Amino acid sequence: MEFVLGGTSSMCAVLFTNPFDVLKTRQQLEGELMARTNLTSRSYNGLRQSFLTVVRTDGWRGLQKGLPAALVYQFTMNSVRLGTYQTAENLGWTRSTSNPSLTPLLTIFWGAFGGLASATASCPAYVVKTQLQAVSSGAYTARFQHHHRGTVSAFVNIYRQSGVRGLFRGNTATIARLTVGSAAQMCSFSACKEFLLRYELFQQSIVLTALASSTVAGFFTSVFMSPCDVVTTRMTNQAVNANGRGLLYGNIFDCFLKIFRAEGLHGYYKGFVPMCLRVAPHAVLNLTFWEFFKGLNDRYSQPHHGH
Q1: Number of helical (H) and strand (E) elements in the chain, helices listed first
Q2: What's the CA gap between 117 and 182, in Å, rounded?
Q3: Is the dihedral of CA 260, 265, 270, 272 positive or negative?
Q4: ∠ CA 189-4-223, rounded to 5°
Q5: Is residue 252 a contact partner of residue 227, using CB atoms and an 8 Å limit?
Q6: Residue 246 DSSP SS3
Q7: Residue 9: in which H helix or E strand, if any?
Q8: What is the rounded CA–CA span in Å between residue 22 and residue 130?
Q9: What is the helix (H) or strand (E) element at residue 177, kind and residue range?
Q10: What span, in angstroms and rounded, lies between the C-alpha atoms of 303 and 57?
């Protein structure tokens, strides 16, 4: 049940945060492997302009591009991530009885392990989501666009073209992205929460404490995860040859190097603002829905135990 609740809560959260994901993807792909000085006109410069560009070229529906794939991605990713972590916690693997100072390290380890397992499970849905979000019917921005009819046809097309390997394109970058992101989120969230509770900044308000901690965690997660996130987007959206091999990037290291050479450090932080705006509210909404669903589950499963 932990797997289902974790997955369902994140599906509810993504309904609100998917538009920011679309803006982030478009910003990350604009001016791919081009120096900033050579970018004369930009369609996705800043949050407001990105928003207006998407609405102008794809209509209001454009803000929810790739939503079915995003729902599948969130369910597979968070059900495995939260389920793995919860299982480790239930078995007592996150706590060290002999050495209490090891507990935070074990928490980070199992958080990262959950991220690693979920990255592999959710990679195909992430590839499809990115390719669908990158397609724009207006001004050509992404260097390459995959024209799929929808989510199901995207899965079929990628499999026909490149086999199973195509569905796991950029898997190494996805693993790095979620392992780093999961560890950074858990670390910053627990540290911030502890600080706020120690100094009683929000008195006894659980909601405000969680909200502030999630916002801080969202920022730090974005800072550490952004380079891996840009690399993942670029690798999953690149054009491929007849053998299904990427035409731009050979592997994760090649991608990191090419972005740095062409775009500098700035290239690793493309789409940073919409990413921040997506990560923090998503964490808050995810946790809120999770608590809500757990409450409903407890309420409706209790009468059976009572009689």
Answers
A1: 9, 0
A2: 11
A3: positive
A4: 30
A5: no
A6: strand
A7: helix 2-29
A8: 8
A9: helix 171-198
A10: 53
Query: Helix, strand, coil: what percent of the chain each, to 5?
Result: 75, 0, 20
* Structure confidence by residue, pLDDT tens digits, 30-62: 989 888 877 777 888 889 999 999 999 999 999
- DSSP assignments along 87-155, one per residue: HHHHTTTT--SS-GGGHHHHHHHHHHHHHHHHHHHHHHHHHHHHHHHH--SSS--BS-----SSHHHHH
Please give the single-letter amino acid code of residue 86: Q
* Global pTM value: 0.85
Residue type, 111: G
Find the length of the chain: 307
Q: Which two tokens stand for residue 280?
A: 């923090």
Q: Determine contact, residues 226/267, Cβ cutoff 8 Å.
A: no
Query: Smallest Cα–Cα separation from 129: which of 151, 96, 108, 145?
Result: 151
| Structure tokens belonging to residue 29 | 């792909």
- For residue range 208-222, list pLDDT tens digits in order: 777 788 888 888 889
> 């397992």: which residue's tokens?
117
Other Cβ atoms less than 10 A from the Cβ of 279: the count is: 27
What is the C-alpha separation between 64 and 68, in angstroms, rounded? 9
Q: Which residues contact 209 (CB under 8 A, 6 or more apart)?
A: 193, 196, 197, 201, 202
Q: How far apart are CA 22 and CA 134, in angstroms?
A: 8
244 is written with which tokens? 């299904």
